[in-house]
Amino acid sequence: MKSITPIQVAGGAAAALAAVVFAILLSVHIFVSPIQWWAIWAGSAAAGLAAFGVFYFAIESFINHRIKVIYKTIHALKSPKSTQVPRVEMTGDMLGKINREVQDWAAGKISEVRELRQRDDFRKEFIGNLAHELKTPIFNIQGYILTLLEGALDDPEINQKFLERASKSVDRMILIINDLDTISRFEAGRMELKLAKTDLVELCKELIDGMEMSARKRKMKLAVDHPEGLPVWVKIDRFRMSQVLTNLFSNALNYGNPGGSCTVSFDDMDQHVLVEVSDDGPGIEPEHLPRLFERFYRVDKSRARNSGGTGLGLAITKHILEAHGQSINVRSKVGEGTTLSFTLPKA
Fold it and tell me: Which of 79, 217, 254, 303 is the most buried (most CB within 10 A)?
């Protein structure tokens, strides 16, 4: 909608008054007494100019001035409190300007409210998930201790067994807390990487050898799909990248089909190496993919907590890769498997 400026309003009123004066003088010229034409035109013009001045002064003083004050106030409120309010141009179409300012401000506030609501929902979900993750080991510890206090402490076989189980629950709580601390340090930018030239093929084989027993229990196969004896040199933090690959291999073992396989492969991408970890597991439904790297988010909640993981592995993986200046992507098809891919800089 196009707004009208004070000059246009005053001009319209002046033109109307000038037309009225012209009509009156013309009527006097015809019906009463002849008047010089220049006098008729001069009188109409003088009336129009006078009307323009009066109307413009009234609009500018009593209406437009107040609009300018409102506009300046809104503009000041939109500016960050920590910065100086910029100079505001107070000429031109003030009604149009204030309309645009109000619309932009309203859109910004709506966006802020929507973002705050999303953050609040995420906070509630995170707290709920954290409470659930900690509740299980805490209740286990409580149960074992109460049983020991009620008399089982005198039985050597029972007290040893229960103390070992309580110790495992404590270890699980420590693992969750350590993972949360790792994520918070990455998010705060307090995690320093120790970058060094590393053979990625050798690192993957070392990690796979360490997970051989877990793979056998699941009757699964972990393998490196790369020509024997050909290294892949990248510049990474070896310890942190070991966490990334371990998390990805562990997920494939925990959620893959018994008897299945998980393969890591490498492709040359000029200045980078593309790393792909693929499995032939059940796959992931499309609606889960956008949230896969959120803290405590689990695709299969019924199986996930029994797998021994903290629910933070993929979140940590994402942060470690971002600290390396990279990102992780996932593609999956239900019934066929999942592939997680990322790039690493060449050494």
Answer: 254
Claim to verify: residue 153 and residue 236 sit in the same structural domain: no
Amino acid sitting at position 31: F
Q: Does any domain span residue 100?
A: no
- As given in the structure block, the two tokens for residue 267 are 């492709």
Cβ burial, residue 163 (10 Å; 0-12/13-18/19+):
middle
Phi, psi of 267 (to 5 degrees): -130, 140
Is residue 229 located within the same domain as residue 178?
no
Q: Are residues 331 and 251 in the same domain?
A: yes
In angstroms, the CA 84 to CA 81 distance is 8
> Is residue 136 domain-resident?
yes
DSSP state, 223? E
Same domain, 136 and 60: no
Compare 209 and 150 and report the one with higher pLDDT.
209
The answer to whether residue 113 sits within a structural domain is no
Condensed to tens digits (0 to 9), the pLDDT of residues 223-256 reads: 999 988 899 999 999 999 999 999 999 989 988 8
What are the tens digits of pLDDT across the range 66-80? 666 666 666 666 665
**DSSP state at residue 86:** P
Distance CA 311, CA 172 (A): 12
Q: Tell me the residue range of the domain where 208 lies.
A: 195-345
pTM of the model: 0.62
Q: How much is the average pLDDT of 176-191?
A: 84
* Strand 221-225 versus strand 233-237 pairing type: unpaired
Confidence band, pLDDT 50/70/90 cuts, at residue 82: very low
The number of folded domains in the chain is 3
- Rounded CA-CA distance 49/43 in Å is 10
Closest-CA residue to 316 (of 261, 257, 239) = 239
